[in-house]
Amino acid sequence: MRLSTVILPVYRWSEGRDVWRRAEELGFHTAYTYDHLSWRTFRDGPWFGAIPTLTAAAAATERMRLGTLVTSPNFRHPVTLAKDLITLDDVSGGRVTLGIGAGGSGFDATALGQDAWTPRERADRFGEFVPLLDRLLSNDVVSYEGEFYSAHEVRNIPGCVQRPRLPFAVAATGPRGLKLAARHGQAWVTTGDPKLFETGTPEQSLEAVRGQIAKLGAACEAIHRDPAELDRIMLTGFTPDRPLDSFDAFTDFAGRHAEAGIDEIVLHWPIENSDFAADHKLFERIATEGLAQLAAPR
Fold this sequence. Notes:
By secondary structure, this protein is α/β, with parallel strands linked by helices. The chain is built from eight helices and ten strands. It has helices at residues 13-25, 50-60, 78-91, 119-138, 175-184, 202-222, 247-260, 280-295, and strands at residues 2-6, 30-33, 65-71, 96-100, 141-145, 150-155, 168-171, 187-190, 231-235, 264-268. Helix 2 runs parallel beside helix 3, helix 3 (78-91) crosses helix 4 and helix 7 (247-260) crosses helix 8.
């Protein structure tokens, strides 16, 4: 089991630098950030770009992995995104993971002036976006003509520091997304079942996650890939569980999800007066002691 955090891009860098450095000091495996133009209750407050934030974080840290959680086609194009990611991977010395998903119907979906895509339209674009991005990050020269995206003799030299490319963590629960995770992912991301967030129980949520993991396994087996090759990441904050209520609440949550097959738990860095408010001393104790407690004999 690994423990990571997601730091929302709400800080001016004069303050944000210390937050990212502190995340490394606390021993988090990875520090991610959201890749949105704005997001939910934070829409009318500070919100910075994901790639520049991660580039600054790469220069401010040395060991901790960095990543998006998640990037989507809502306002990204594979050609320009690939160039940014190759640069970020180089600046970080090969410490980048791309969390990637189909996107949603929030602010990003209409910010460029288009109508919000339906779930099917998002899945269609995602199905083209991921394989093309895979090619762009793995090859020096790529040409492609698709239904939604094109690339004409695109050069990406020298490529990623990580070979053959930086890892993909694919967020997916539906059959088409799970197939993409199985074929292109080095990791899979879930936030649980959104239908259970407000009215479900922790037990129901855990059972839903088990079902998602089983479907991921079936998608891997369908292409003769060992499901154990994919890490399984749980982004917390969107299930009925409250793992930051107490130290015991975290260890109980982490233990149950580890048994279900989750390899990495991601906690939101606390933000006062928000949905992600939490006791910061408790958060730091969980960061430094939580997994050790989980591994202790019971």
